């Protein structure tokens, strides 16, 4: 299939597919006129690459992992790389959770202001003297 067909079947832009090929994540053959052609297995490959990107892996890591995927075996290096990426994602999740929790606190304070949190509520309102006129 041509690159446009692969893009349509996977929902990935032609530009991204070219990038995948440049990085060594996807292989194309060339027709006599120089057009890229892909086998049907390219659809699964692109979906796998998209899943790995979706998990937050950078392209350099994906390139390092794909030979193990292709061979159907894990090396100690690929296993360590996967654990490292999982730990990185876990750290990001912890940071996002802490940020969300802090935002929840700010929302609660905004909905239920108290003098402790809102300086405006600490000052007494100015007394209006009914006997004076400006």
Describe this structure in words.
This protein is 63% helix and 3% strand. It is built from six helices and two strands; from the N terminus they run ααββαααα. It has helices at 3-10, 14-23, 41-54, 59-71, 76-111, 119-122, and strands at residues 29-30, 36-37. β1 and β2 (36-37) form a beta hairpin. It is elongated, with a radius of gyration of 28 Å. The relative contact order is 0.08. The mean pLDDT is 89.
Could you list some keywords that capture this structure?
MerR_fam; mainly alpha; Multidrug-efflux Transporter Regulator, Chain: A, Domain 2; DNA-bd_dom_put_sf; 2 strands; 2 domains; 134 residues
Would you kindly provide a brief summary of this structure?
By secondary structure, the protein is mostly helical. Helix content is 63%, strand content 3%.
């Amino acid at each position: 299939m041509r690159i446009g067909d692969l893009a349509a079947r996977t929902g990935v832009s032609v530009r991204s597919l070219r990038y995948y090929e440049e990085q060594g994540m996807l292989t194309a053959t060339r027709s006599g006129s120089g057009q890229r052609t892909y086998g049907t297995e390219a659809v699964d490959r692109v979906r796998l690459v998209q899943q790995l990107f979706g998990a937050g892996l950078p392209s350099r890591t994906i390139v390092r992992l794909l030979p193990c995927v292709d061979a159907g075996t894990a090396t100690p290096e690929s296993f360590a790389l996967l654990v490292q990426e999982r730990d990185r994602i876990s750290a990001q999740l912890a940071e996002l959770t802490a940020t969300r929790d802090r935002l929840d606190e700010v929302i609660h304070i905004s909905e239920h202001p108290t003098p402790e949190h809102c300086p405006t509520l600490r000052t007494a309102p100015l007394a209006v003297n009914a006997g004076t006129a400006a």
